[in-house]
């Protein structure tokens, strides 16, 4: 009895479809001879990636370390800085404007990430079919992604103009209430969410679509034979199998949401009444408007730690767990 | 300071970001390599100078012509013009350049950036140099000289001068049956006209105010504050002074018009006000010469002084500057010579005729070419006359950016109807005091 169960779980395990983010097989570790074949190979490998490594170190790692050092200084970027120890961090912990910007960033992330995930999934499901002209639709969904942020910002400030915008004109035509959007301290952040969700759906849909197309068709065929409706199969089979993909998107979108800057810079400049001054915008003001570079670096370090923590947490949550049929390992 | 228009940056797709970065890095490396390869060896290195500017279109072409003329007339020196990507971010770019050890000999900067750059160890102190015979420092308008001076030190040479005047659409006034503005208009007349020219049904407004809390929001308020006899800071620049009857009167006027009358279009900083002025949705602007070239040909407009408070029609000017940075004595010498030549009366008048920029020096208005300027740009006459209504300048402090931000937030909160003028003054005043105390 028990053996049949085991066999069945083995079979189930081997039948599990590979999704696009399946773990890469680990290479078996063989002991290397002194620059034997594998040694030479790895040297070649390192040589191949060294240009990228040098660039990443120079333009990624060095600035990161430099800003870390900068965060312990008072520095106006023009005259030699002075070491102030943890003073920037102390001031930061008591800076109400900084905490306001943190609150707004969290608000934005909480609004932006789930809506983008859900809408991307629906868009991907809609695009995952074989009908005439599907490439045109796919292209249409993806266009916002390749549109420059500045262009998007300009277009949206016109679309959402309270007095002359197309959106309000349409709303009032059909007798619905109109909005102030970017002009109102309470509506500006939701308006930025609206704009950025529009800009990111294409990216999310692309990733989800790749995930959906990685799901073997025989699974879906089997579901249909068992009398499962298309909708049911989507929610009960495809969506659960997209788990690693959603995990990746969740992390990716969250990182981007916490670093929101361009869209704010292009539309509201952090206003009105600081309503859209998110953390990175506040950092920008401190660094490049007031030239408090040390203080801004401290903000950057805090943001870096926060993003690292949130990402680690999300990765833990979304890591693949065994499905119930497999039993707990 | 010319208009705070956002300058479009390089388009960046989201996904392509990483590729762009790699390409950019590659480009930087290439540039670096070529610069290292070709820069140091040239024999006249000491007399080749770089001039960074943010001029575009007509102004850029005019400057290029003048630089070429200089290069032809001075074969031993060479001026290289470099576009800085737009003056709105010239300060950021210049400061970043110092960090990277790659900075121009001459940089065009807003006057409001002067105090920030005055700390720069490489900045050339021009205090003695402008006293040289033939420089005629006193020929510059007083507001320009004040803007170029930080703590008694001359840090730059005036590059451009402007001021705020009232620009109005004649057709809209005629249609509404409202008498056109005059140089003697009072705040009350202005408010009254703005109200009559507004129509919520047609979404037309009497006036527009840039309300993004930037310096663009602040300087219009400063003009009103000064008209009412107030000032931004105490005379020693250590404390805020605008929480005063004058400060209250100016904020109250803004509130009356924007919140009570709803006769003001609040521009969110994207510069839509000009398109709306062109399409006849806005009747009056407080703006400077830089906007005139963007007004459509079919809009018949007039220009007057700003409406005044008890007969005071003071306005505000944002002189921009050429700042000089030291590489070597030879290069600095060339830079001083070039800038003196560029800002001398006959040379600048040519530039003004080509571009419509206002004369920089009083003596330009006495040259015969000035009549050509006036006949080519009839509307500029008021702007030139209005230079005499510039009495104050913004305080030249390193903390000015923070002071400006606090005042901008204050004005914005009143215009949006979020705060009463008296309460907003208190809040703004506290924020400015904190900024000045360096906390």
UniProtKB/TrEMBL annotation, chain A:
UniProt subcellular location: Cell membrane
Chief location category: membrane
Segments of skewed composition (Basic and acidic residues): 1-13
Domain (ABC transmembrane type-1) ranges: 102-314
Region annotated Disordered, chain positions: 1-36
Topology in the lipid bilayer: Multi-pass membrane protein
Keywords on record: Cell membrane, Membrane, Transmembrane, Transmembrane helix, Transport
Family matches, as Gene3D superfamilies: MetI-like (1.10.3720.10)
CDD domains hit by this protein: TM_PBP2
Protein name per the record: Carbohydrate ABC transporter permease
Pfam (any one): BPD_transp_1
Annotated TM spans: 43-66, 108-127, 139-160, 188-210, 241-261, 290-313
Family to which the UniProt record says this protein belongs: Belongs to the binding-protein-dependent transport system permease family.
UniProtKB/TrEMBL annotation, chain B:
Pfam families: SBP_bac_1
Claim: Transport is one of the keywords in the record: yes
InterPro entries: SBP (IPR006059)
Keywords, ordered alphabetically: Signal, Transport
Record keyword Transport present: yes
CDD domains: PBP2_UgpB
PANTHER family documented for this protein: MALTOSE-BINDING PERIPLASMIC PROTEIN (PTHR30061), MALTOSE_MALTODEXTRIN-BINDING PERIPLASMIC PROTEIN (PTHR30061:SF50)
Family, as annotated: Belongs to the bacterial solute-binding protein 1 family.
Protein name as catalogued: ABC transporter substrate-binding protein
